[in-house]
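quick one before i forget lol
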Amino acid sequence: MSMLRAALAWTLEEAKAQATAVTILAGDLSMARELGPGLHSRAVRELAELAAEAVRLAVLSDRQAGASWAQIGAGLGISADTARRRYARLRFHWSPEGPSFGMRRTEPVRTSRNHTSGSPRPP
């Protein structure tokens, strides 16, 4: 399994665990009171961040497998142009520490207007 697919699988497992935690919190009001106000909102925000990361990793994985922007857009329910604009600049950067250090694992790469090779802009 490639590192990209391993990262996608890890992110989906994290999202599953977070969804389970949110479900438990939603059913136990006394636990939510003990753990403090805003807990549900924080838990759902973290779930949304994991879902967004999973989408980025899925797009990268599909591109690596040869999918067109039209195919990716169709899968996401958006146009090919919108998919390309949102995700064409993503690059895979995996750190085993991942989110515990506040690092995004997929990041857009900055490019200048004249530098279109898809690699990071030279210094």
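fyi Confidence is low (pLDDT under 50) at residues 99-104, 109-123.
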